[in-house]
């Protein structure tokens, strides 16, 4: 590949980095709006989401153009395939941030009778997980990416803990149901963001090592992508989450 092509790849990388930054900002704003009961701040998340959507279309168009015109191979090919998938994951993270912002708006109109349970702590860990997964992808750090994948279990545990507390509270105080349901939706959206951050970490491993680990594919076969599978072994990249 010529120097111009690799310059264009760096430009694509920068666009994805910007997209990831906006997705993180949207999450931070939505959680700050939730904690401070600031409906105006929650509305700002929509603007971030629109910007994320625009960048996704640009990344997809540019990646498909490279694939069709340059016919890249090896790591460059994996990078472009991963770029399309990561842009989709980041776009969905923006959508989840909007969902949290919508819950923040609804909750701001309700009486604040209790703290937000463990949701702020869950959000902090989820946002850190997203930031670390993007950094691992940008740096081609497969070892860190694997550790990030393991952290998804912790987020699932936070969600289960929050569900247990809120569901118990709804039984004891039926008037708390509307507020508790919104908080459950927030925890659900955070859990989905963690899943998408895991996807990005998996893409980091795919680009760096040409290995697929989605759905524990690495437990089934340790062969690099492109190598023929053993008889009876699954082949191809599993479907996205």
Automatic annotation (TrEMBL):
One of its GO terms (biological process) is phosphate ion transport. Residues 16-103, 122-203 form the PhoU domain. One of its GO terms (cellular component) is cytoplasm. It is found in: Cytoplasm. Its main location: cytoplasm. The keyword Cytoplasm applies. Keywords: Cytoplasm, Phosphate transport, Transport. Pfam families: PhoU (PF01895). Residues 218-241 are annotated as: Disordered. Plays a role in the regulation of phosphate uptake. Homodimer. This is Phosphate-specific transport system accessory protein PhoU. It comes from Eiseniibacteriota bacterium. The gene is phoU.
